[in-house]
């Protein structure tokens, strides 16, 4: 049960609250409001609170406010609200604003004229309502993803009522944290559980924020450790997911994270099949560990066979023997021959089309084709070499940091 700070600030009746620092982190999730009545807050909060500082029960000079900002950021509060303009705190000292901005802690100013009871009531009510809506959304999404619904017509009606636009084409992404066993082995059951729960919560918060900024994106939370995204298909989806994976690795800390991408589901009637595809792709990603963290179901044909090879060095040796001679370290474009081979394979060996794909002159492609055959000792007309090269290219694209032309 949580709301983003930016969602709270948009609640009717709270328009007089103003962000003074930490605006870049307004996507932080607020789990509950907390009114600070003691000198410090470190031992009274657990993380995720929106802390209100009134100055009523304790003097709040600049030194104390700076201490609250430091402690609040250290223990992971969502943000801090300082009431100003009344008898107790006339204004927020510039040094406090500057420090909060430096730390990235959202700092919000609330005028005393805006009654605390009104603010906390609005936030508390919104949190409860959001919890109910999210529970209902997860319920209907869970039914559609597992196929466990009494009536597809009713499921569609419920989705429409909850403002879930599910009758448009979507691709599903299945996400899961990895190396969980190692986390518990390193830290033991108690500390390991705290790390696991906090990381999982941070992961969910980041995904919620990411979905809010991507049109049509929906997140579903199923029982267990699997997270699911429903995404509209567009041209930059793979690039967006690669960037998302990079961001999530920072959140995951000691653990890793992998993703599986389904083929396109035309509407919610096909979600169960799409989730099955995404889970299969996720399993392959966990075994082959691609650099982008993502495996696409459409590429699973050969990869499903390769994941059965226990010794990963056999796969690496195969790629190295097939493509290694074509890579020229130290040159401006060390992967130019590899990219040329990739284009030739995609165009079924047609040099003219490969040249058009790469934006090169046909003579340049001809020279590169000769060079590929010289270095590899293979003929581009040999179907066995082209098959091996296609498989090696598929693995290489997944696991290597590739150069650009």
UniProtKB/TrEMBL annotation:
Listed SUPFAM superfamilies: Homeodomain-like
Point out the coiled-coil segments of this chain. Answer: 261-288
Instruction: List residues of the PucR C-terminal helix-turn-helix domain.
Output: 337-395
Keywords recorded for this protein, A-Z: Coiled coil
Report any Pfam family annotated for this entry: PucR
Alphabetized InterPro entries for the sequence: CdaR-like_regulators, CdaR_GGDEF, Homeodomain-like_sf, PucR_C-HTH_dom, PucR_C-HTH_sf, PucR_dom
Domain Purine catabolism PurC-like intervals: 7-126
Where the record annotates domain CdaR GGDEF-like, the positions are: 154-284
For this chain, the family text in UniProt reads: Belongs to the CdaR family.
PANTHER family xrefs: CARBOHYDRATE DIACID REGULATOR, DNA-BINDING TRANSCRIPTIONAL ACTIVATOR ADER
Protein name, per record: PucR family transcriptional regulator ligand-binding domain-containing protein
Q: Which organism is it from?
A: Pseudomonas urmiensis
